[in-house]
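Page header: ASSEMBLY MODEL / two components / 925 residues total.
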Amino acid sequence: MKRIIQLTINDKEYEVAVEPNQTLTDMLRYELGLTGTKKGCEVGDCGSCTVIMDGIPVNSCLVLAMQANGRKITTIEGLETEKGMHPIQKAFVEKGAIQCGFCTPGMILSSKSLLDKNPNPTEEEIRAGISGNLCRCTGYQKIVDAVKSVGK
Amino acid sequence: MSKKEIYAVKGLSVPETPASAQEPKPWKQTQMVGKGIPRVDAYERVSGTAVYPSDVLLPDMIYGAVLRCPHPHAQVKKVDVEAASKMPGVRAVITGDTPEARVEWTYSKEARSSLFDPHCRFEGEPVAAVAAETPYQAEDALRAIRVEYDVLPFVVDERDALKENAPSVHGAGNVLKTEKYERGQVDRGFREADVVLEENYRTECQLHTPMELHGCVAKWDGDRLTLWESTQGVYAVQAEVAEVLKLPLSKVRVVGHYMGGGFGSKLKAGKYTVIAALLAKKSARPVKLFLTREETYLAVGNRPPNNMRLKAGVKKDGTLTALDFSCTGTGGAYPSGGTSLVDWLVRDLYKCPNVRTECTDIAIHTGPARPFRAPGHPQGAWVLEQMMDALAEAIKMDPVELRLKNIPNFSQGKEGNPPYSSTGLKQCLEEGAKAFQWKVARSKALAPGETGRIKRGVGMASCLWVVGGGWPPSTVILKLFPDGSLNLNMGASDIGTGTKTVMALVAAEELGIPLGKIEIEHADTGTTQYATPSGGSKTVPTEAPTVRAAAISVKQQLLEMASKELKLDAASLVFQEGSIAPAKDPSKSVKITDLSELKKRGVVVGIGYRGPNPENKAIIPFAAQFCEVEVNTKTGEVKILRFVSTNDSGRVMDRLTYDSQVIGGITMGIGLAMTEYRVLDRDQTGRMLNRNWHDYKLPTALDVPLEMTSLPVDREDSQANSVGAKGLGEPVTIPTAPAIANAVYNATGIRITETPISPERLCRLLAEKRKEG
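Prediction written out in full:
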């Protein structure tokens, strides 16, 4: 049976009726239409569905929607402000850290979470920070460059 | 101020306009092409606003799922869907007994099958499908379907498939075909050699695993079907679906604006495409059907495993005298190129008068192969490039030197031996060696007296890719509006390589229109022009000249309009910064946006067609890669320290997307070399054991070298086509694995002839070597 949960997504309050077995990924994508959160494996291997929950990057496919009750969620749709793209998004664009773009939202959110905690990460720290996000196209180097450029 | 803005404000001169029927001249200098300009759709891709086919949400949409055979070989006796049909939310169930689902399916021309073939020849063959209100209900319904199987004997390894009494895949022997090639006198060639070496090699089966799953959303409007499919080619999907469902092409619209990677596995429609359409028809609802990650490991292609042998002869001066290559491979249960192009590098890369190859394609009970980034080439390179390394050592020559000695200037493998339109292999080798500091690095690695368990080594390999010039057909339409903005309309998909960006740059270059004023419509059979799938490293050399042709048509029409307005001959007029003026009197100009005929008509439509390639020329991209590794001789772990890749793909169209392709290609090659391989339960069940990214390991950000350098040999190939570019996407991944293997050999003295170079394998080989002393 569906239950109503309350949560904050990208600084906006939501009330959503969810099934007990519905994942946070599916709730974001199907109930709210926030399809910037991608679905790559649904078993926590690829990181395409990464969102930030209470400051921590999580694979939203491994979180039940109900577990997000009362939590604060940031998805890729929440990064841009009136001033424009988030500096990490800008860096991804300028450094060419994108190919097909499917891993990009997850990569950006993992990077954001890293930079929020550690504004000047070393290259190794950046690589470790995005090691839970698979990319099949880019080879990571430009993603690392992009994150590094924001850190400095 | 960004480059984009400067360009928009200043307005720049555009290239000369050829008269109609005249071929455009190569660009003398470029303002936009070749710079590192960010993607035109970068915002969509970083903001989450790009809608991929798997993101499509339609009103009233329901969700499809496919039940697959869990056995590598079985006969379906009975499918009971009664309970499933009554499950909550279920709106359609189809099986092989459903009349409208009794359609033919062609895995390949040689082997026809049906959509739900009761004779399942691989694990993952569809048996039934459902559509339900939620993905969870669809999944539950699948579990309620009862299938009775006759489980049959199987063979899932091509090395077992040729044994006597091996289970048969198609009712006879398992050899699908043997292809032979021979030139010169191979035996004499070996007699002339000073050194002859022979070795066996194997590459394991690699899976594409693009980030976006395979699948589509299907919707019917009366008798018209629309599919939003994650694909490399919307027109290819349209043709296949129309044929299977016996629909006119015009009634099948396929849309694929964004897509999350394909690497060859999304060149065509899948059974899932047709299943989604049938479920949508039956339920009278739009149906979204995307495979699970597990299903993609089984049913949507792979790079075939290959067993290879090469015997090679060389003279002391480095002259290759003979190459004798044989291989077996398997594309799985249906003919799908199990040995396709595996011998191509042996035939074509180095000068050698005497060459013999023999390739045998074998059927086994696994999912059919699909083309995978440079089909056959990385496998062949694994063999040839390790052999070249061994030959060089045997004659005491530097491996780079040996390759430089054997560069052909024409294709020896192609019929008629056409000359290359351009070959930059020499530059790739020389410039790569220089940038890598090959000689210094190699002498350091070879220095005696190194003790301790960490050993360093360097290795290199080179390659070509069998096609790289693109070809017709392609049609592109440009629409110039009276406000000076442009719509670029093409059928090609941008599979992540930057196709849209490169095409926008070509239009901007030719017409002097800032990128911000160019919008692209693409990859939609309903509204955009015919294009072949994006693959084979042919998209840029196919589509870019077509865009240029369309832009020239626009310019010719504008000159005609200005000619009427200025009452002057069109041939006497030239473009200058957004205006048209007499060449002799620039003061009498008319602004393009002021042309009265343009305002009246509302649009100028320029149509470009891809013309033929030059006759009797081989348009081929070349590459060389250099790498340095560190091997822990106690644990067998290999750390790749750095890579330098030099590529001759003609003109660099956009430096940012170019470098991304190179670095991404190296990374995929690292996967093949180090960690990626399909594990099948060869004896007990025949099932795949590592069908997820946890057990099938792609390189992560921690597994790739900190230093990867892309160094283009940026040389326009003016014979190839009007933009001077050759293909890039495939050569970038071909030499990677053998370069690593050669570096590991350089470090340890151990030749790893089988992928992957795992710590386990390397440890075993190191132990054997120690035993032998």
